[in-house]
Specification:
The complex is a heterodimer of chains A (468) and B (310).
Chain A (H helix, E strand, L loop, with lengths): L15 E10 L4 E10 L2 E6 L11 E4 L4 E4 L1 E6 L12 H10 L2 E6 L10 H14 L4 E5 L13 H6 L2 E5 L8 H14 L2 E4 L4 H4 L4 E2 L2 H6 L3 E2 L1 H18 L3 E3 L5 H12 L4 E5 L1 H5 L21 H13 L4 E2 L8 H4 L16 H10 L6 H8 L21 E11 L18 E11 L2 E5 L30
Parallel strand pairs in A: 1-4, 1-5, 6-7, 7-8, 8-9, 9-10, 10-13, 11-12, 13-14, 14-15
Antiparallel strand pairs in A: 1-2, 2-3, 5-16, 16-17, 17-18
Helix pairs in contact in A: 4-7, 7-8
Chain B lengths: L16 H18 L13 E6 L5 H12 L3 E6 L11 H9 L5 E6 L4 H6 L5 E7 L5 H15 L6 E5 L6 H12 L3 E5 L15 E3 L10 E4 L5 H4 L6 H8 L11 E3 L12 H4 L6 H20 L5 H4 L1
Parallel strand pairs in B: 1-2, 1-3, 3-4, 5-6, 5-8, 6-7, 8-9
The chains are: A alpha/beta (468), B alpha/beta (310).
Chain lengths: 468, 310
C-alpha cells in the first residue's frame, strides 16, 4: 500500500463470508443480492445469495436485507495530529472513518505544527503505521506555516509520502505564489488542492451573507468570496496546465466557475460536503455553533446547485471536511466558536436520509461519489470484484438512529446533524482487506420500512428534515 | 391580558403583538409608580436578579438596576472589567457560578450574538437579553414602542424611518421587528455599505436615499460609530453628515425624532435637532425603567397585578 502513499497499521486479512447482502457497486455493475467471500483479505468469490460456503477458518455473516457497497474514501478530513490530539488523533479519527464506512481518508496539514517539512510528515507516516485503523494519506502544505509567503520543499515532501498539497483552512491569497506552486508541480507531481476564499471579501464573516445574516446580525461571507477565487485559480490551472482540486465548494457561482473551467479543458476537480448538500443557512437562525463552518452553509438555491452538480459530475466526489473540535470550543457564542463540523460518522446516513429517501439523488450516485475521492489523488478506487483487495462496507439502510452527544468513535461530538434522526447505519467496514469496524450493538429506532431489498422508492415518507 | 409570556426574553420574536401590548400595558401602571414619591412596589421582594454586562452600558444597565430595585428585588450587578470574566473565565462557567445564587433572572449584555440564548441553556433563571452583539436588543424596542404608543395612541399604519448604520445595529433589528409587529411600516435608510444585504426579508423597505424622509411620521436615528470611518464603511464623517445627518432642515413639522443613545452630537444628529421639541429622546430614557420593570414582572410574576402595584 505504501506505493499508494497510504499508511496504516497492518492487520491480518479477513476470512469472511457476507451472505445474501444486496450488493451495489456502480463501477462493477453489481446491483442485486450476492454472497461475497473474502479470503486472506481479498474478494475470493462472488455468488448468488446462499450459494457460497463459509470459509473454514472464518465466519459467516447473515446479511440478508443489508446493503454492501464499495467502502467510502474521504479526500478531506482533519485528524488534528500532531498538536491537537485533544480534538482527535490518528486512532480516533480513523476509528470514526471506519465507523462511517470509509476504507481510506486523506488528512489535512493544518495541524500544530503544520505539515510543511518532510521530517514532520515522516513522523506522521510512522504514527499512521502504528495507529491508523484504515489507510491514511497525507497532504502537505503549499506554503510554510500556511502563511502564503514561501513554498514548502514540495519535492522532498512528495518523497516523504505526500499525496499532494494544500493550505486548507486558508486560501493561497497571492496568485503569484499559487502560480509558482503550480509550476513546481511539474517537477514533483501531486495534486494542488485549494480552499477558496478571498479574505478581503470574507472580512470577519462567520456565516453566509444573505437574509439570515441580516436577521441575526452576524457578519456575512458572500458567495463571491469563494467563486471569484475558484475562477481565478481555474484560470491559473489552465494557463500552467496544472492539476488542481477545489475543496468543499459551497455555492452555485463556484459550481458554474468549475463547470466553465472543465468545459475549457482545465485539469480541475471539485468536492462537496454532506452538510452543504443537506443544510442551508436557515439553520443558523438558531445561532447554534454546530452550524458554524467554513465555507458556511449557504442558501437553498446553492444547495440545489450543488446536488445537481454532483449528479452531473461537475462535482467529482463527496468529502466530509470532518473537523472535530472540543466541547469548550463550541459552547461559546457563534462568533467566537471554532469553525467546522464532524462528519465521518454521519456522512452516508445524512445523504441517504436527506437526499436519497426524498428522491433528490439516487443511491448509486451517492455510493459512487462517496468512493470517488481517492482516485483524484491517484489512489485505487475500491471495487467489489473478484481478486480485488476487500474494501467494502455493509450498511443497514433501515436502521434509524438519533444523532446525539454520545456514541461517536471520534473524540469530538460537534456534529451539525445533532438531534436529527437519520437512516442508514454502517454495520461493518472492511478496509485494505481487514475488518476495521464492526458495530458492537445496534440501538435502533423503529425501522422506516424503507428499502427492504432492491428498489428505492422516490419518496418513502421521510421528508426533508426542516433545515433548522 | 391573556397573551402568552415566554420564559425568557431573547428576541422580539419571542413575543406576539398581544404579548408586546401586555408588557406595554403593565409598563403604563409602573410608569405611574415612578411618578410617586416612594417609587417602590414589593412584587419581587426576596428574589435575586443578576445583571451581567460584558459591554459598556450606561442607560441599559442603570435602568435594569433601577427597575429591579423598584420591584424590591435584590440586585447583583457584574461588569466584565474587574470580574472573573476578566481573568478568562468562560461565559458558561460564569453563568453556572452565578446560578448557584438561585437568581430569578439573569439580565445579560454581550458583544456576541446568541449569548443570551446560550445563557438560557445553562441556568434555571429567566434570561433577559440586554443586547447581544449585532443581533437584538428587545427591551430597547419595547421602550421605543411604549414611547410611540403614548404619543400616537397606536402604531398601526405609522410610517417609521430608521436612519443610519443598520448593519451594525441590534437596535435596528429588534425595532424593525417590533414596529412592524405593531402595525407600522418601516423603511431603513443609510449608506449602501451599512445596509445589510437581505434586510428587506425582515419586513421593511430599504433605500440609500434620504430624499423621501418627509414621508415618515417618525424618524428613528441610529448611532454612527466613529470606527466605521477607519473601516471604510463611509469615506469620511463629513460625507456621512452631509448625506445622512438629521437636522431641523431635514425634518418637517410634526415628525417625531427618536434615538437610542448615546448620541454623537453633530454626526448623526445636529445639536438643534436633539434639543428640538420634536425629539422624544428624554422620554425614551424615562420609559426604559417602567418598561424593564414590566418585563421583569411579566416574566417572573405574570398574573394578577393589582396587589403588586397597590
Amino acid at each position: 500500500m505504501s506505493a499508494e502513499r497510504l499508511f496504516h497499521r497492518q492487520r491480518p486479512g479477513a476470512e469472511l463470508l457476507i451472505r445474501g447482502a444486496y450488493v451495489l457497486d456502480p463501477r462493477t455493475d453489481l446491483d442485486g443480492p450476492h454472497d461475497i467471500l473474502i479470503r486472506g483479505g481479498r474478494i475470493a468469490e462472488l455468488g448468488g445469495p446462499g450459494s457460497l460456503p463459509g470459509p473454514p477458518d472464518g465466519e459467516t455473516l447473515d446479511a440478508a436485507g443489508k446493503h454492501a457497497f464499495p467502502a467510502f474514501v474521504d479526500p478531506h478530513a482533519h485528524l488534528r495530529t500532531p498538536g491537537q490530539e485533544y480534538k482527535e488523533d490518528l486512532d480516533t479519527g480513523t476509528a470514526a472513518a471506519a465507523a462511517g464506512g470509509f476504507c481510506a481518508l486523506i488528512a489535512m496539514p493544518n495541524t500544530q505544527p503544520v505539515v510543511d517539512e518532510a521530517a514532520i510528515l515522516g513522523s506522521l507516516v510512522d504514527r499512521a503505521r502504528r495507529e491508523a485503523r484504515v489507510p491514511v494519506g497525507f497532504l502537505a502544505s503549499i506554503t510554510h506555516g500556511l502563511r502564503g509567503k514561501e513554498l514548502t520543499e514540495m519535492a522532498a515532501l512528495r518523497d516523504a509520502g505526500a499525496l499532494g498539497f494544500t493550505d486548507d483552512g486558508l486560501p493561497v491569497v497571492s496568485a503569484g505564489m499559487l502560480r509558482k506552486a503550480l509550476q513546481y508541480q511539474r517537477l514533483c507531481g501531486g495534486v494542488v488542492s485549494l480552499h477558496e476564499e478571498d479574505p478581503a471579501l470574507s472580512g470577519d464573516g462567520v456565516m453566509h451573507e444573505g437574509a439570515v445574516s441580516a436577521r441575526v446580525g452576524l457578519a456575512g461571507i458572500p458567495s463571491v468570496s469563494e467563486s471569484t477565487m475558484v475562477a481565478r485559480d481555474a484560470a491559473l490551472a489552465a494557463y500552467e496546465d496544472a492539476r488542481v482540486h477545489f475543496q468543499h465548494l459551497s455555492c452555485a457561482e463556484s459550481v458554474r466557475a468549475l463547470a466553465d473551467a472543465k468545459a475549457g479543458g482545465a485539469r480541475v476537480s471539485g468536492e462537496v460536503c454532506p452538510h452543504h448538500l443537506t443544510l442551508t443557512d436557515d439553520a443558523v437562525r438558531t445561532l447554534d455553533s454546530r452550524f458554524k463552518m467554513n465555507p458556511p452553509l449557504r442558501t437553498e438555491v446553492d444547495r440545489r446547485a450543488l446536488v445537481e452538480a454532483l449528479k452531473s459530475g461537475v462535482l467529482d466526489c463527496i468529502a466530509t471536511d470532518h473537523a472535530p473540535h472540543a466541547r469548550h470550543e463550541k459552547e461559546v457564542p457563534f462568533e467566537l466558536a471554532a469553525m467546522g463540523t464532524t462528519g465521518l460518522e454521519t456522512a452516508f446516513a445524512a445523504l441517504l436520509t436527506e437526499l436519497v429517501i426524498p428522491g433528490e439523488l439516487d443511491l448509486a450516485t451517492v455510493v459512487e461519489r462517496m468512493s470517488a475521492g481517492g482516485a483524484l489523488y491517484g489512489l485505487t478506487t475500491p471495487r467489489i470484484a473478484v481478486n480485488e483487495i476487500a474494501n467494502l462496507c455493509l450498511v443497514d439502510l433501515d436502521a434509524r438512529f438519533q444523532v446525539g452527544e454520545e456514541g461517536y468513535a471520534s473524540r469530538s461530538a460537534n456534529c451539525c446533524f445533532h438531534g436529527r434522526a437519520l437512516c442508514g447505519r454502517v454495520l461493518l467496514t472492511v478496509a485494505a482487506g481487514a475488518i476495521a469496524f464492526r458495530r458492537p450493538m445496534l440501538v435502533q429506532l423503529p425501522t422506516s420500512g424503507f428499502a427492504r431489498g432492491a428498489t428505492l422508492p422516490s419518496g418513502a415518507g421521510l421528508g426533508r428534515g426542516a433545515n433548522a | 391580558m391573556s397573551a402568552h409570556m415566554p420564559r425568557h426574553l431573547i428576541s422580539i420574536d419571542d413575543l406576539d403583538r398581544a404579548g408586546i401590548e401586555r408588557i406595554l400595558d403593565r409598563a403604563e401602571s409602573f410608569a405611574e409608580v415612578s411618578g410617586r414619591e416612594i417609587k417602590k412596589v414589593p412584587a419581587l421582594r426576596g428574589r435575586t436578579i443578576v445583571n451581567l454586562f460584558y459591554e459598556a452600558s450606561t442607560r441599559t444597565s442603570s435602568s435594569f438596576e433601577l427597575a429591579a430595585k423598584r420591584l424590591s428585588a435584590d440586585v447583583v450587578s457584574i461588569r466584565s472589567a474587574g470580574s472573573s470574566v476578566d481573568k478568562g473565565e468562560s461565559l458558561k462557567d460564569t453563568v453556572q457560578t452565578l446560578s448557584a445564587y438561585d437568581p430569578a433572572a439573569i439580565v445579560i449584555r454581550s458583544p456576541n450574538a446568541g449569548a443570551a440564548q446560550l445563557v438560557a441553556g445553562w441556568t434555571a433563571a429567566a434570561v433577559i437579553n440586554a443586547g447581544d452583539g449585532k443581533h437584538e436588543h428587545p427591551t430597547q424596542a419595547l421602550l421605543d414602542v411604549f414611547t410611540l404608543r403614548r404619543r400616537l395612541g397606536t402604531l398601526d399604519g405609522t410610517r417609521i424611518w430608521i436612519v443610519g448604520d443598520v448593519l451594525h445595529s441590534r437596535v435596528a433589528r429588534s425595532n424593525i421587528l417590533a414596529f412592524t409587529r405593531m402595525g407600522a411600516r418601516v423603511t431603513v435608510c443609510g449608506p449602501p455599505t451599512l445596509i445589510p444585504r437581505g434586510i428587506e426579508t425582515l419586513g421593511c423597505e430599504a433605500t440609500p436615499s434620504i430624499e423621501r424622509l418627509h414621508e415618515a411620521e417618525v424618524v428613528y436615528v441610529l448611532r454612527m460609530q466613529h470606527e466605521r470611518m477607519s473601516e471604510s464603511f463611509v469615506p469620511s464623517l463629513r460625507e456621512y453628515s452631509a448625506r445622512y445627518q438629521v437636522s431641523p432642515g431635514r425634518l418637517r413639522p410634526g415628525q417625531l425624532l427618536m434615538h437610542p443613545g448615546p448620541v454623537n452630537r453633530g454626526v448623526e444628529l445636529s445639536a438643534d435637532a436633539i434639543d428640538s421639541p420634536q425629539a422624544l429622546i428624554g422620554e425614551q430614557v424615562k420609559a426604559g425603567v417602567a418598561v424593564r420593570m414590566a418585563v421583569l414582572y411579566e416574566l417572573l410574576v405574570g398574573s394578577p397585578m393589582l396587589e403588586a402595584v397597590a
